[in-house]
Amino acid sequence: MKSMTLYQKLAWSLVLIFSLLCTLVLNWSKQLEQSSVHHAQQNLHLQLAEHLVHDNPLIQQGVYDYDALENLFHTLMILGPAFEFYFVDSEGHLLTYSAKPGQVVRQQINLTPIQQLLDNPTATPIYGDDPRSKDGVKIFSTAPVYNQQQLQGYLYVIIGGQAYDTTLKNIKANDNLWLAAMWFVAALVALFIAMLLLFRFFTLPLKKLNKELNKIEAANYSLTKMSLDSSYTAHDEIGNLSKGVNAMLARIDEQFQSLQQADKQRRELLTHLSHDLRTPLSSLHGFLEVINKPDSHLNEPEQRHYLNLAMDNCQQLKQLIEQIFELANLECGQVKIQSETFNLGELIYDCVAKLALTAQSAGISLKVIPEICDFTVTADIAKLERVLTNLIENAVRHTPNGGEIAVKVSQQSDQLYVAVSDTGVGIHEDELNAIFEPHYQARNSIKRGSTGLGLAISKQLLTLMDSEINVKSTLGKGSEFRFNLAMQASA
Question: In which region does residue 148 sit, left (phi positive, over 0), alpha (psi from -120 to 50) or beta (all else)?
């Protein structure tokens, strides 16, 4: 079920409270006013009927002349238009009254209210039947009429009769403007109070959220020092806003930490690059300076030796610059994969043959397991060759004289696993997670022209080919780098 919005909650709450308040106050005021007026009027005229019975000769000794009594009632109504006079028998039937034809719609009234008023005159207001209305009631005054100790009937006087109601209605019509103004003012006051209470209730979470944000701002938006209180979890705008702000601040803090880490890595990278570039450049400059001296008196073999050293440094500098550009392109996402199907064993033997002379000169044996390596894979052959070359070169650099390097291929289900293992110096356990960082060098590394970028480039290339590289190492016994490739299904 869709939650109500904050505006809808406020609007409906105000409408309901305002309507309920107006209805209750209006009904209560009307009832109170009517009850008070009726109570006062009935008490004021409580003995009116009794005085008429005792003071009027037509009624004092019993009613004999109904026409004369009707004329008396007519005269009394002219003198007191707010009263209506009726004479009823002991059964409640109307015997005589003064009214125009058609005005009296009841010919019998209930005598119970009459008896109640006679028995307990202090229980006012008591309402009796209105002869001029089928179901209406009015306050009244009454007195029994006897004929020689025999109850003949009751004098029934309606207080505030039809003429009184008509006049009062006209007066109230003139007072409607003032009454409406009073109600309008009262409604505005009630609405103002209700709005204050409701707005405080519904905006309290916003106040709390703003307070939390001010604290985080004072902490320089660092969630490591402050955390946003997520106690308000309602499914409305404020709850969603709280969650959104919390997620946004967490994301900002995460990005801030990433930027700090990236800036730290950038400074470290620049430091390593400066060092790596300075070393071959300094050596190159030194060798060329020796050769270029006018009084060096170098013979031809010595000049050739220094030129070869200078060429080696140029080659190392060229390789470093190429790796820097290659890593930069990988990190910027500018390298694309061009997959093709080929024989993995042929590629491995090509890489081994390319580095066999380097391994042999370092006194290291290089082999492939199994020797017959006939597996078909689909990958980017150039980038996979680059990965294998980097891993084998890395193994050569970290394996001492007399060591062994093996390129192993194994199959598990539809995956091929290629591992390059060595019997070198190994890697400290606390350095295993850092060796794929650019320019990272292990503490016990045997440096043979290393730039520290090969493993970082290999990991980036394998990630592009949906492969994952892992390392296992034992200090002093060697290391193994292992990655997976999707095997091509047989035709």
Answer: left
